[in-house]
Fold these 4 entries.
Entry 1:
Amino acid sequence: MTVVLKRSTEDRRSRSTDRHLGEGYLLQVKWNNNHNHLLISADALRKRDVSKETVERLSDLFQQGQSPSSALDTIKYDLQEEKGDDYFLVAADRSIVPDPGFCYRLYYKIFAKAYGVPSGEGMAVDLQKRLDAINQEHGGRCAQMEVKDGQLIVAICTPVMQRVHAAVQQSGELVFVDSSGNCDRENHRIFLLMTHCAVGGVPLGVLITTSENTPTLQAGFTLLKGLLPPDGFFGRGMEGPQTIMTDDCAALRQSLHATFPTSRLLLCTFHLLQAMWRWLLDSHNKIVKEDRPQLLTEFRRLVYVSTEGELSAAYAELNNGILAKKYPNFLKHVAKVYGRREEWALCLRTHLVTHGNNTNNYVESAMKVIKDNVLHRLKAYNLSQLVDFMVTRFEDYYIRRLTDFANNRVVRRQPRPSTSDVDCQRITREDDTNFTVPSGSGTTWYHVNTSLSVCTCAVGVTGANCKHQNAVVCTFNVNEAIPATSTPQLRRMFHEIASGRPTPEHWFESLAFQTPVMEEHLGDGDSAGTAPTLSGEPPSHQDEASR
């Protein structure tokens, strides 16, 4: 490039006859389109602008739920499959393979346009508009927000969650509550309410707050109660579930007790033992490293003893132990925890219907679903996007899961207990729902009630599935109140929860219970032995194979 600055024609020293000078153009630039470097090289190609086609491809991947990093990996993978040995040539071209910084800038630019400002009053206004649109789309209230003492609270109970409240019996018996953070750029807290069933954990409600203090959480749970259907918690309504299991968060437990005063609050045994281990690891407590495992084992005995008498004996043994006496601060801490034994000792919750659940694993698993399947290990752009994802992606995940179970496409991870050591011939049937089952040795008898799905043995007393219940079901072909197998009735119920619509007749009937319907009088064109299909269509190749 050559640049020449000329004198104005008004200057007496200028003798130029260039007509451009008279028009006031004093600067002359000559451009020679020659490069002083290689045009085809990796360093040159990485300077190119990202092409319009690549921007559109990234935008499509973002709309499909991809993160900036995963979208970039997808583009590279597709190019590697397409180009083969020539991949290194296109991989250097920024117009085709953009840099990670561009992907992140484009990601936030797209969602800033869709979800508004990231924080502040403007975000709250955009959030309220989005909640109004969500409620209008679903034809009722399933999400609402409130500002209390400067703290923003959002409560969500989607149509699927409302149908779980109404149809799943366990929602009125046991609810798991836990929280997680680090899901959006403002670090709001997500609280999940879950229950369990044959599918696994299913959600009952979502609470998103800017704080974890007791007044904020209490206002949040009260707000959530306003979204529940009339038959929420399986008909218990505003009274709440019989039992709620949480970790040892004081603010959470106080707010739950204030919102559901008649519910029994239990402590998750995993979090209890984890908290004790962390106390032992704390250097301020001065517990010798070699003594920590033994002290944890002695405390663990208190959690898992079978009877209240054994609990008292184990506590006395711990206090009189030589090792524990070396640490008065440990005994003082255990005494404080022991005072709350009604919340965590398994032998003191046998009268509660927990179905053998003593941990918050269902909520822990759901939190992993949120971060892996909903957010794709990426923080949400703002609270408005986080709410949108919980109403759409989180809801859709459980619709797919319930649908797979309804279509019998889910492999059971926990098989029913074996009945090999139960003498099924000696089971006594007292009436339609009550049975007496002998133990393995035949010296002890247990009572099974199939209408309540309980047994008087140590496993089944809380409603968990045991070998005695399984023996009754297999021997007398009776249905349990809370079946653990995918019966047609159960599959139909979960389909209706997922879709909100009644199921087609015969769709969920099992092949094991189908009886071929034979025509008494065959017409001229009929072939013997061909059973009519449910849809009335000709038999398929699968029908031929099954015959």
Entry 2:
Amino acid sequence: MTEQNTQLGRAPLWRPDPWTLGAVLIAALVLAPVASVVWIAFHPTENIWPHLTATVLPRYLGTTLALMLSVATLAAAMGTGAAWLVSMYRFPGRHWLDVALFFPLAIPAYVGAYAIVDLMDYAGPVQTTLRATMGWTSARDYWFPDTRSLWGAAVVLAAALYPYVYLLARAAFREQSGCTYEVARALGQGPWGLFYRVGLPMARPAIAAGVALALMETVADYGTVHHFGVQTLTTGIFSTWLDGGNAGGAAQIAGVVLTLILLLVTLERLSRRNARFHRLSRAQRPIERQPLTGARGLLALAACLVPFGLGFVLPVSVMLVHAVQAPGEWLAPGLLAALANTLIAGGGAALTTVALALVLVYGLRLSAHPVGRAVLPLTTLGYATPGAVLAVGLLFPLAALDHRLADALQALTGTDPGLLITGTAFALGLAYVVRFFGVAQGAVEAAFGRISPSLPLAARSLGRGPGGTLTAVYLPLMRGSVLTALLVVFVDCVKELPATLLLRPFNYNTLATRVFELASLERLSEAAPAALLVMAVGLTAVIPIARSGRT
């Protein structure tokens, strides 16, 4: 039939291969919870959309956009500036800052929020010391910036999220050729000209990807904005669903979030569509760092210390002080169980997520069908979906499936097996996979794009099949990027809070939920050990990421 169609001048029918079929199934798995949320939004039990648009939705949307703009500006400035300085110059402290600037990636933003409020609030040590030193007796005697505000939330979020920009920008700067900068210097370009006219344009795709990741986290954040009293779309979802008891209204607000993120992802991809740079030769000259001495060296050191201090030193110091004040909390019941649950759930989800991302991206690269190309960007929506809404999208279909499965097993065995899906950590692990699939997919897709197309073509011409090309060509060249994706997803799973709170089985605590439960009751001394363990677990993953690209 194929030969007859060819002879008649017809194109052969498209037949899906195992790689393509697997990719489509994975995409369906990732998109199913989002589709469930959309279904709930369009089929609510009680439609309150007119009430939302007439009252709170404009305020939620305006605050969210203002927060996104603030975080994007601060995170891009901190991440790109620090990456440029440590990649292009030698100055005091550069060697250890090259690694230390990654450390805030291990700190949940909500822990940073607890720390800065505890330090800077009216009853905190900063204002207490000021009043004692200056002789002030009340808040009316002096002015102090309100930490529980939009700017406070923006600073905390940017300090926690700038490592996404730093990670990708640093890799982009280091992959550039030193010859390019030598030519630019010979043409009279100074330090600012090298940055704006040479380095920044070539690193723009990586910076845009890092900022997009930071903005997705910003839109999905709940713990930080809730603690600072900032009313965003995400807090509106929580209040509409948990306080108002209207899942349909919450899903409708989530639809606004998904639309916003879809526009963001589309703009980011369009901005870097034609900006591709391939390394043509392994023998190209690496960048030679220029020395900065005296005041310029100290200024570069200070510029790098600001994001590191805000994102890492401040929250760690505050939590360490509380932990030292109450050492008995390290032996509190439930702490070790929460640590074990965190490692098992986060580690299993990270391995599964990265493996599925490899199959999806590679399978769609092998397929010429336009449906696959259209599906790929949509799979990043799970990363932008707030954890609570994603939990709703999983909870309803999984609960229905769980009950049918339990009924079928009871009919066969005569005993009630209980809830095997929602009653175990399976639903939580699935939420992690869907929530952070966009992180793994983005890293894997970028790694595939950095490999020159001639290499896999050469492997295929030598008789390698798709699987052999993946294992013999792609994976060895992508090993660092795959490890980075694995560790970043693991850290995100450890820090995830909203989905964990809603999907965890009964009496199943992770470190994140333990920190939230205790800190929300203003019991920071009891929450400090779990918070420090979250940071320690995150650092075990972040340090290899930093050292893997260290030069």
Entry 3:
Amino acid sequence: MPTRSGAAAAHLTLRYGAIHRALRAAAARRAKRSSLLAGAELSPYCVTDEQAGLLLDFTDPAVGHPAPWSGGPPAAQTHAERELRFQATAEGISLPLDELASAADLDPFECDALLLCLAPALAAEHALLFGYLLDDLDQRRPTAELILTVLAPSPAERYDRLPALGPYGRLRRFGLLIQDGDPDTYGGPEPSGADLLRPLHIRAELPAFLLHGLGDPALLAYDPGQVPAPRPALLDEPTRGRTARLAAHLQAHPGGIAALWGLPDGGQLDAAHAVAEQAGLTLRGAPGLELCRTPAEVRAATGRSLAAAAALGTALWLPIDRFHEPDARWAAAAAADVLTRTGVPVVLTGQTPWRPLDLLSSGRYAEESTDEPGYWERRTLWSTATAGADPEPRALDDLAARFRLSPAQLRSAVRLAESGGMLLDTAVRRVLAATPGRLADVRTPSRDPSDLVLPAEQAQQIGELAAAFRAWPKVSQEWGFGGQHGGPGLKALFTGEPGTGKSLAAEVIAATLGVDLIRVDLAQTVSKWVGETEKNLDEAFSHAEAAGALLLFDEADAVFGKRGAVSRGTDRYANLEVGYLLQRLERSPALVVLTTNLQGNLDEAFTRRFQFVVHFTRPGDRERYRLWRMAFPDSAPLDPQLTLEGLARLDLTGAGIMAAARGAALLAAESGSAVIGREHLAEAIARQFRQESRLPRSGELELALGPVPVRDSAASVAAAASCVLP
């Protein structure tokens, strides 16, 4: 049974037979020309015609591989190649050269050119042959001139094949052949006399792939400027109408510039392709532009991309959001300078408009602005993306209400669900899994409603808040309540004493909705430098909006506090921070939860904008009983004489109960006790009271725990018993 490596070598040997015949023919033509110079003085430093013949004999595949088809006539080689392909297919083997030709869409001439450049790796004698054919022994490496001399001998063939060896031909554009002096990305001038004589070398990974099939053709044959069309294309109807108008502009102005603003990063590719496709064009990108460090590099990279687009008859796509960064203004000016002078159609996309005056006054510019898709537009995009999967309509309604996905995110979620065999809801959560933030703690909620112990009224409010988030898109957008009732997103305020479950309730809501929880780290957010606090908080809001997460501000009065009279210079800036946050909170589409121990500390302008305000009270006897049951795991060795009903009489919050249970377990383990007894709980509860700056009333511990034995090993228990109110 032939191996893939053996079949690959046999295939190359077959194809090299044609290359060698071309070399013999080129050598014959060279010898004929040499004979015309027989009477002229020749340099002794040359390869004679006889030596060239010997070199050809040394490199003839028929010598190393004696077979009837090696180096035989073209018809015999074609027949042998068909037989080899048939045999390889029968054995389930693919031929590497065929794979590469398919991946890069190479024609026979391009395949032969590639093999001619590979020839020195197969036999070192080719280097001298190349110098002989070019009449220059210093040229021992393949060049475009050599390829044309061997494979395109007539003027007509040379003329037709010249572009295939240039910077925009597939061989160099895909990085299969690299010419000395090429930039890091494809591009450069059109072939000239000097360009034809520059040495060419094949990509380093190609010999192993062509000879043994080691490698992936999809990675070896890759055009960095190619922009694949997204499938399926995901555009809502309003955006599709805007792209149609821009496409009409490009049709009326063949060198026009079409700009579409307001799109998120993950939706710009779909829109750019829609503009190009409706204008009858394809798209190319500008590879390497983001790596430029000087204006000259930006001009060169932009110029190469525009030249490639012009040579290939495509439009250039340029996402410009990077140009708005403070340290990239110089790059924007350099790119605008080149774009103004080109006659290539250009598609610009970005979240924020970019309007250099030179472009606006060029007479080629047209723009459209779009808004974020509403609920029904998102629902339509979900239907398009899941066409054929036949999901439940109610599930798509829920996904469209809960998540604001870009087309790229939506497409990824659907494909992940299909390939991973998971629910769409799970796939969306994986796609939206928030990356760790610089200013926020990102977590996947692990608590569910059963972990939240609240009075019935508060528990109902928390459930209503989660349900309202699902219904809000319809109420906000279809029924029109969003514009005048707090903005596009829901905001909730949780007030109450510490330890009453405010932060836990936020985590439970996030878990119910199936989104991540982003808790803002106020210690890193608030800055003494003017403007830094606003910048940091904007980053937190943007992080939550991009991830579709619940944004939690714990102890929110630290940054959402009341504005006051200006008596010092810093007061003015503090008031500006509050004003900015008021605007940012109102326009955010995210679900934002603020918690505070003292509602009166918040600015009234904030409190008016909350659709939900939940006050968390201290738990009653029934809630405390449930909390004590949850505080001790089933495996905990609790003294059977202890009763949870008695513990529930103690006025502790949920956080205090959990802390007391954990402290009692630690005391029992430290003392070597087999059970968590009364004395351990007494000391732990007394410590918790002292931590809260409170004292238990006289007899309260005894009533809750029963008589507490005083042991020598727990002297602090006696101290705890003495710390009571008379």
Entry 4:
Amino acid sequence: MPFRPRLPLPLLLLLLPHLRRRRSSPRPPVPAWRSLSYYPSAAAAAAEVTESEEDAAAVGRDTRAPPSIGGIARGAPRVGCNGGGAAYDEEVERKARAVARIKLCHELLRERRWRAMRAALAQLVTEQGSGSAAALCDILWNRFRECDTNGCVWDALANSYARAQMVHDALYVLSKMSSLNMQISVFTYDSLLHGLRMTDVALELFEEMESCGVSPSEYSHSIIINGLCKQDKVGEALSFLQEARKEGKFKPLGMTFNILMSALCNWGFVQSAKSFLCLMLKYGLVPDRYTFSTLIHGLCKVGSMEEALDLFERVTKEGMELEIVTYNSLINGYRLLGLTKEIPKIIQMMRGQGVEPDLVTYTILIAGHCESGDVEEGMKVRKDVLDQGLQLNIVTYSVLLNALFKKGMFCEIDNLLGEIYNIGLDMDVIAYSILIHGYCKLGEIEKALQVCNAMCSSQRVMPTSLNHFSILLGLCKKGLLVEARWYLENVARKYQPTDVVFYNVVIDGYAKLGDIVNAVRLYDQITVAGMHPTIVTCNSLLYGYCKIGDLQLAESYFRAIQLSGLLPTAVTYTTLMDALSEAGEVNTMLSLFDEMVAKRIKANAVTYSVVVKGLCKQLRFDEAINVLKDMDSKGKSYSSRNTFGVPQRKWH
């Protein structure tokens, strides 16, 4: 899981300048230093694996404080009974344990027992916890400064904090080391870079490392590139790589290129990703299965299935065994293209290579059937999976539920929900949203509200804005404006939404019922609350005025919209034009149509339908035919029903 700094970035940035070392001033002699800090050489590492049990026992030896008398460690100053002695005793004991553990680390270093020393320091950092860096640095400086191994312990302490994701403590140790002119190893910098890779501080720390004369390791560039890619800063990652190559500092690793290729494929830049394959070969690196899996995934994502299959066959013929992830990429590629019938061939190919389909494979297959409208086949695949003893996850069930709602198969929905409950699966926000939206769309508002209540009572997921929008829309469609208004006010009181979209739904509901009074009141409530009405809000009010037949007020409001600074849309004009057509004021309607064209507002199919309907009512068929020709030349499809629910004649 990506690490998030416990301190805000501004505070981390304040600590970083302390890492800068003055190059102009002469540096005092550095304490005796091992060639690779506390990281052993290859020979030492090999010997380390075969350490005796005595070595392991040294790590676990009793490192408590010296024997105490009356609960106070020897040598510690005594306090009076009324001075809060218990807290003081605890602090003294804590410090004594830290001193003993650091002393043990020095002893282990002298015996060249690197792994045991690192384990002891890691345990110390865990025991002392976050914010303990200042106290431990004080102990190292005041009690162990004369030890020739002290510099190694300082560096190892910074590394331990970084590995424990206590980044602010690690930065504190580094700043103290810098002020004391102690050498910081590249391995410690790498650990800290890894902890900060998801923040903007990582690049600054990398620059500090170079300014201090520490050459990046072979992993340093990969850590920075990985962090930038995970933040979707692919452009910055490429620039960083280009700069490092230009300066001749880049140390190529296959991992680095794989990270960049994966990021580029996720963005759909497959051709750019393929160019890195050539660069890998230029550096003498051998592409691994992850490299080819990444490219195959990218090709499938953009629909280049032939190229993906060709690459897959070439790689497997060369003897490379690809994992199930690659097969799933091919299967998903066919799903995205709607070629579900090709999927069984890939599954057969998998089994021929000794790779059995997993839950992801079956989920993709089920999704393919559901998206093509064959939900029954999707349900059969589900049964086959269950018969094999596999358990579906909530993602698979969500795909099936969504497809069942589209088909209106209530009985199957209830059965599937019962199955989810019996298995004991936890619903996630997507599953809840599918249920709420599905029930609302089918007019089952009560069930949607029950799901919303269950969602809130679960205390794991909370309703989203889209969930509230679906419920409000469902209530308004059923004409339950009292309930919709109550729900809106309840949501506003509980979540304080600043999104005018919620209010637009209810205003539109009032307008469609012809309740212009309540629509205007809610409009006023928006402005009082400091929200800004949109053109959608105004279109709904305009429709309300037209609905009650007050054309004079509707035309006045239409002009007021234009003066308000909001840009009228095709819906704005069409709404008023339809009302004028119904009232027989066709010439005024045509004037509005001409105004709309003059302002370069594109008419839609509904607009043309309204104009044709108005002309035909007055038997002006020649003009109507000309409008139809104009509509045909602009590629508009004629609808048999416009958005206002008015049936239209078919013109031949």
